[in-house]
Design a protein that fits this description.
The chain is of the alpha+beta class. It has helices spanning 17-34, 38-44, 51-57, 76-87, 91-111, 114-126, 241-277, 289-317, 323-347, 349-352, 359-366, 376-387, and strands at 130-133, 149-152, 158-168, 175-181, 191-197, 203-208, 219-229, 234-235, 279-280, 283-284. Bound molecules: flavin-adenine dinucleotide (FAD). Residues 132-135, 140-141, 166-168, 211, 219, 368, 371-375, 377-378 line the site of flavin-adenine dinucleotide (FAD).
Amino acid sequence: MTNDFSSQRPPLTTLTDDELAFREAVADFTNGEVRPRVQEMERAAKLDPTLIPKYFELGLMGIQVPEQYGGAGGNLMMVTIAVEEISKADAAAAIMVDVQNTLVLYPMLTYASDDQKARYLPRLCTDMVGAYALSEAVSGSDAFALQTRATAQGDGSWVLNGRKLWITNGAEAEFFIVFANAAPEKGYKGITAFIVERGFTGFSVGKKEDKLGIRASSTCELILDNVPVPAANVLGPVGQGYKIAIETLNEGRIGIGAQMIGNAQGALDAAVAYLKERKQFGKALAEFQGIQFQVAQAATELEAARLMVYNATRQKETGMDIAVTGAMAKLYASQVCQQVTSLAVELLGGAGYTKDYPVEKFYRDAKIGAIYEGTSNMQLQTIAKAVLK
Ligand SMILES: Cc1cc2nc3c(=O)[nH]c(=O)nc-3n(C[C@H](O)[C@H](O)[C@H](O)COP(=O)(O)OP(=O)(O)OC[C@H]3O[C@@H](n4cnc5c(N)ncnc54)[C@H](O)[C@@H]3O)c2cc1C
């Protein structure tokens, strides 16, 4: 027995020429279209709606979807790269792309029927933002204690009732994967995934949260009040929703890892630029060895986190189980992100504590990595179970 979770295959973190070209294209897009909007989106706590059609035009909202459905026909590494690059400017702008690709399109590509793929994938790649609705007020870490209920109607259709909380993209989404329990007597084995459109009767979006970080990303309550859902909109087998939820979050965690390394890199880049300009004691701050070593340590830890995220990405692409390595990548990337962004604020001194510089935003945006798609404790639980088995 071994606790070496990479031993099955060597890490394959090198990027191909196609992936490098893609990274350059997303970096150009980020610098040209996202970065100039960040301050205003942060102030307004709202994603600039003109940005969303640009995501679709560039193919960022359907990266892994085959071209026959209007997608970009890319791979998971391209999702990682896109989320990382956009997060270098704004983790809030990146999370829409992340949720669409990992939490919405992954389960659609894996579990949707041919009819569901034909009806929804072309729209999800061109103009339809999606969301993933698992969490509720009473069920966060204990996600499968969810209280939303699905009642069979006899003709194969269902009626959904309940409330979802904390749903990313809630304000913009037209398409929701909603998890509800269709047979509570069976416990988590009653959980089923449903495709719900914003326009369905009885469905509405409630309160939008006022958050510490990723403020331009919408986080909303969803209200399901006797929502009729046709039989054709059950996603995957009835009673298999827990499996779909878990597998989807396994891929999703890679995206959060990517968001965290991008956010940390953005903060480090901003700090380095400042250190080269700012003079104290007659020389640039970057010339003091005490500061150089802090920056070197941060860059090293960031590189380690990046390699873990890329490695889990490649493992997923090759069909390996990433429950543990994905949890490790998310856990470590979010820890490194908190350390690096905190250091960046310190390295800018008083300026770092103001909104005149981007590092305070990177610092606030870092915290979410330890909370969503499973808190850090939940990642540790997954890892501990595997190591100690
Ligand atoms: C900005 C934002 C966006 C989100 N987006 C989505 C989304 O799109 N879709 C969605 O479904 N959900 C979403 N969530 C919900 C998110 O996944 C949950 O907040 C998260 O899973 C934690 O659940 P909770 O908030 O109920 O915390 P709790 O589960 O109440 O946890 C509170 C604390 O207790 C700890 N804890 C709990 N149980 C244990 C245990 N057994 N052992 C040790 N420690 C434990 C946790 O680690 C945490 O520190 C989002 C949340 C936020 C804040």
